[in-house]
């Protein structure tokens, strides 16, 4: 019996992993600044300071803003998601089994992508971080976050995000200003259609089950898209190798990526008690 697996199977499997990763792999990837198809092991994000418009005297030279420019470098790491496919299963061409493996690999890479971003958010040292105070996600904590971003001139351009745990979302549903029609209008009620994402106070609120939990303290995060960077190498790659000792093919999906903090003033941690 031939121990080689068809090229068509490999290409199909790789395509299914890639599609599954793009569809359901990561919740946080599209909420941060991305550098894709990085060549080599390092990526560089540009960080530009703030400038101010000025006047000039007649016939005088136009003053420059002298905006500061800096860079933030990040070194990519390699991550793998592997599993075995029994040769007899391949001969049966069990498409459902193949799709399950593809989705499992994509989900594993997606969880790792999110964890890299969460690790950066957890490590943030913004002095405005909000301690849990033995309370959930209260109205006061949300308003303080809104004020902090405003005072720091974090752009209110649709790129502000607020990621909370399911318990944090449940706290939000108990806030009248978040969940009652007289405040948000009937079209923005968070109950309709099982909504788990909603724009409020200039932030897009959404849930994530993988936020760090220490005892009863959960770390939620507010951030701007430009404050966190995610660098990735080429798209998800897949290899399929025959392992004779197991009479199976080892399917390995892999990708290179890493997250980094670009601007510490653009994200903050909000702790809640669960």
Features:
274 residues; alpha+beta; Major capsid protein gp5 fold; 2 domains; 7 helices; 13 strands
Protein model, in words:
This protein has about 270 residues and is of the alpha+beta class. The chain has two domains: about 5-50 and about 65-120 and about 230-255, Major capsid protein gp5 fold, CATH 3.30.2400; about 125-230 and about 265-274, 2-Layer Sandwich (hypothetical protein PF0899 fold), CATH 3.30.2320. About 30% of the residues lie in helices and about 30% in strands. It contains seven helices and 13 strands. It has helices at about 5-25, 85-90, 95-120, 140-150, 165-175, 175-180, 180-185; strands spanning about 35, 40-50, 70-75, 75-85, 160-165, 195-200, 205, 215, 215-225, 230, 235-245, 250-260, 265-274. Strands 5, 6, 7, 8, 9 and 13 form a six-stranded mixed beta sheet that branches. Strands 1, 4, 10, 11 and 12 form a five-stranded mixed beta sheet that branches. A two-stranded antiparallel ribbon has the order 2-3. The chain starts with 6 loop residues before the first helix and ends with a strand.
């Amino acid at each position: 019996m031939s121990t080689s697996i068809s090229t068509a199977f490999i290409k199909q499997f790789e395509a299914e992993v890639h599609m599954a990763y793009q569809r359901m792999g990561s919740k946080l990837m599209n909420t941060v600044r991305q550098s894709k198809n990085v060549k080599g092991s390092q990526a560089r994000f540009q960080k530009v300071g703030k400038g101010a418009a000025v006047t000039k005297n007649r016939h005088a030279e136009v003053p420059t803003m002298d905006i500061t420019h800096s860079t933030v470098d990040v070194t990519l790491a390699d991550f793998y998601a592997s599993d075995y496919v029994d040769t007899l299963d391949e001969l049966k061409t069990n498409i459902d089994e193949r799709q399950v493996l593809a989705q499992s690999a994509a989900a594993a890479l997606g969880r790792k992508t999110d964890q890299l971003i969460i690790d950066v958010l957890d490590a943030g040292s913004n002095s405005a971080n909000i301690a849990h105070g033995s309370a959930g996600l209260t109205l006061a904590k949300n308003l303080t976050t809104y004020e902090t971003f405003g005072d720091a001139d974090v752009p209110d351009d649709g790129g502000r995000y607020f990621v909370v745990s399911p318990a944090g979302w449940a706290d939000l549903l108990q806030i009248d200003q978040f969940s009652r029609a007289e405040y948000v209008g009937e079209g923005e009620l968070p109950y309709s259609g099982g909504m788990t994402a909603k724009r409020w106070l200039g932030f897009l609120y959404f849930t994530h089950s993988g936020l760090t939990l220490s005892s009863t303290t959960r770390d939620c995060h507010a951030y701007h898209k430009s404050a966190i960077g995610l660098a990735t190498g080429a798209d998800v790659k897949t290899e399929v190798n025959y392992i004779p000792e197991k009479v199976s093919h080892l399917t390995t999906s892999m990708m290179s990526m890493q997250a980094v903090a670009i601007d510490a003033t653009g994200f903050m941690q909000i702790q809640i008690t669960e």
